[in-house]
TrEMBL record:
InterPro entries: Ser/Thr_Dehydratase, Ser/Thr_deHydtase_PyrdxlP-BS, TrpB-like_PALP, TrpB-like_PALP_sf. It comes from bioreactor metagenome. Signal peptide: none annotated. The keyword Lyase applies. One of its GO terms (biological process) is isoleucine biosynthetic process. The lineage of its organism: unclassified sequences, metagenomes, ecological metagenomes. PROSITE patterns: DEHYDRATASE_SER_THR. GO terms for molecular function: L-serine ammonia-lyase activity; pyridoxal phosphate binding; threonine deaminase activity; threonine synthase activity. This is Threonine synthase. The keyword Lyase applies. Its EC number is 4.2.3.1. Residues 2-304 form the Tryptophan synthase beta chain-like PALP domain.
Length: 308
């Protein structure tokens, strides 16, 4: 449906943004959905179940509509109404589930376990992650055979994070690039399980410098945030994400709602109207780069659009 190859624009002297609101459903999730749903179509699957906090549901619903596949999208009761309307416009059935994001996933998995419908999970389906790798491959071409020095990645369940990480390993292993850029994950302070777990791990390594401290993931309680797209209190692959950040020397930053709102306003004044979850990317960039000990160089953030 025209997914991929979104442009990169300059936001500042050394800051660039990949304009992913030009994707069919306004977010980078389309890169994973097209691969996953195309494979489902080839297998003859006629009905899928998927759970989402919003954007992935929009994307999967759209590609199911294109492929002629029925879709049941499980959402939390706090999902923005504009995203629910978008999903329903594609002909998908929306099922609102009370409770946490994890309760929504549990309800979808329970229904899928009956075996009548395919569980098309953007979190667990490896084909979705393989599709997400194309984000970094595109960036490599956008920067004419190179990568920016710093890549900022929004982090909820980790679909883009895994895509960037795995694509980066492919480029390194095949000697297409010879060094890794700095990868900086971004979470919202009111729901930051990976960030909090990382801080605990880092403190332990400072306290016991001669010991090999194993990072341990701890879930949190979602205290509410405008960045709903990355507000995952207990991501299914939280331990794996944490280990990657620690073992590969990636960075992570948490931004609060005030910082996100300020970033949203600043982007709007530049002419870019994005969803608050996307504004968190810019907020994370500003917070990370404001530290005097941080490296400089070119940086990339991602912009996803406000649902129409």
């Amino acid at each position: 449906m025209g997914e991929g190859n979104t442009p990169v624009v300059r936001l500042g002297k050394e800051l660039y943004a990949k304009v992913d609101y030009m994707m069919p459903t306004l977010s980078f999730k389309d890169r994973g959905a097209v691969v996953m749903i195309a494979a489902a179509h080839e297998k003859g699957i006629r009905h899928i179940i998927q759970d989402s906090s919003g954007n992935a549901g929009c994307s999967v619903a759209a590609y199911c509509a294109r492929a002629g596949i029925n879709a049941d999208i499980y959402l939390g009761e706090s999902t923005p109404e504009k995203k629910i309307k978008m999903i329903e416009s594609f002909g998908a059935k929306v099922l609102k589930i009370a409770g946490s994001r994890e309760d929504v996933a549990a309800a979808a998995i329970k229904e899928a376990s009956k075996g009548e419908k395919y569980y098309a999970s953007h979190v667990f389906d490896p084909l979705f992650v393989q599709g997400m790798k194309s984000y970094l491959f595109e960036v490599y071409h956008d920067f004419e055979g190179d990568l920016p020095d710093n890549i900022f990645v929004p982090l909820g369940n980790g679909t883009l994070f895994f895509g960037v990480h795995l694509a980066l390993q492919d480029l390194l292993e095949n000697q297409i690039i010879n060094k890794s850029p700095n990868i900086i994950a971004i979470q919202t302070a009111n729901c930051a399980p990976i960030y909090n777990s990382y801080i605990l791990w880092h403190a332990a390594t400072q306290k016991h410098p001669k010991e090999k401290v194993k990072p341990r993931f701890h879930s949190v309680i979602n205290r509410g945030t405008i960045a709903d797209g990355i507000a995952i209190a207990s991501p299914a692959k939280g331990q794996q994400i944490l280990e990657i950040i620690c073992n590969y020397n990636y960075s992570i930053v948490a931004v609060d709602d005030t910082e996100i709102l300020d970033a949203h306003s600043a982007l709007s004044r530049m002419g870019y109207y994005v969803e608050h979850t996307s504004a968190a990317n810019y907020a994370g960039y500003l917070k990370y780069m404001s530290k005097p000990d941080q490296v400089t160089g070119t940086s990339l953030i991602t912009l996803c659009g406000a649902t129409k």
